[in-house]
Amino acid sequence: MTSRWWEDFFDSDFVEGFSAADLAIPGDVAFLQARFVGHAPTVFDQCCGYGRIALPLAHAGFAVTGVDQCEDYIARAQRAADDCALSATFVRADAYQYVCPMPHANAICWGTSFGYLSEDSQAIAMARSALWSVVPGGQYVVEYYALPHLIRTFEASRTTAIETPSGTLTVHRTFSVSWSDGVLTQRWRYEREGRASSERVGHTRMYMPRELRDVLLRAGFESIELFGGANHSEFTDHSSRMIMVARRPYA
Ligand SMILES: C[S@@+](CC[C@H](N)C(=O)[O-])C[C@H]1O[C@@H](n2cnc3c(N)ncnc32)[C@H](O)[C@@H]1O
């Protein structure tokens, strides 16, 4: 896996390609609201992107801190929050190291923002930053793709055409798997109005639920619950998403 590939991957093309493809936000926000704990309604959004989930949570009344490495995404999210006078602070930093100065009642890592390097130690480091960013008893909710479903429905390529204010954006995605490393590689090729615009390559660890649970346990979390999606369903081989809710121990 190329080191720090995400520094190039996440750009404005990705925002249009990703947000247009995603219809799940209201269900995700309702799930989180129902799960969140603590008297103080505070949320740390680790790898918050442009605020896709953080902003609806702030609109729902949570005080949010979001961290992301992408300067453009952080600026967009902060502008959107300030325009609506929301209680939300967005910080540009490396999530492997960033720990909130004041611990929050809840933390999330949404939309497959985890497992970007092949070493378990890196994923554990990111989870540990979340551990120290929540109060004892606080929760860390991680959302990822569901590997059994991905394998069952595997497509080697997919093309999506998205209508944007600046014309049609066509996203060609190809997928390949390294079984020996347990890594899924995605190549995103963008075309604007039929003209090639950019190409990006990203990698994610292919976690079975038990493997992701082990990462969270090794980071220091406990009481880990598994869901098959934001509708609180049981995880099955038909679940298209995997959600884990982990708790920071009291002592
Ligand atoms: C797939 S996007 C998801 C964004 C957001 N969680 C959502 O659901 O819309 C992954 C995000 O993780 C961020 N990211 C990846 N690695 C990071 C790191 N080491 N530190 C901070 N942000 C990171 C990227 O910049 C990108 O915005």
Ordered list of secondary-structure elements with their pairings:
Blueprint: H1 6-9, H2 12-21, H3 25-35, E1 42-46, H4 54-59, E2 63-68, H5 71-83, E3 88-92, E4 104-109, H6 120-131, E5 134-145, H7 147-152, E6 157-164, E7 167-178, E8 183-192, E9 195-205, H8 209-219, E10 222-227, E11 241-247
Helix pairs in contact: 6-8
Bound molecules: S-adenosylmethionine.
Describe the overall structure.
- The chain contains 8 helices and 11 strands.
- The chain is an alpha/beta fold and 251 residues long.
- The chain folds into 2 domains: 6-145 and 209-247, Vaccinia Virus protein VP39 (Rossmann fold, 3-Layer(aba) Sandwich); 150-203.
- The strands form 2 sheets. It has a 7-stranded mixed sheet with strand order 3-2-1-4-5-11-10, with helices on both faces.
- It is globular and about 55 Å long.
- The protein starts with 5 loop residues before the first helix and ends with a strand.
- The structure holds S-adenosylmethionine.
- S-adenosylmethionine binds at residues 6, 10, 47-49, 52-53, 67-70, 73, 94-96, 110-113, 116.
- The site of S-adenosylmethionine has 20 residues, from strand 2.
Shape: globular
CATH topology of the largest domain: Rossmann fold
Which small molecules are bound? S-adenosylmethionine
CATH class assignment of the largest domain: Alpha Beta
Number of domains: 2
CATH superfamily of the largest domain: Vaccinia Virus protein VP39
- Biggest sheet statistics: 7 strands, mixed
**Radius of gyration in whole Å, from Cα?**
18 Å
Order of helices and strands: HHHEHEHEEHEHEEEEHEE
Q: What is the total tally of β strands? A: 11
Strand order of the largest sheet: 3-2-1-4-5-11-10
- Helical proportion, percent range: 25-40%
Structural class: alpha/beta
Q: Based on the coordinates given, report the CATH architecture of the largest domain.
A: 3-Layer(aba) Sandwich
Q: Helical segment tally?
A: 8
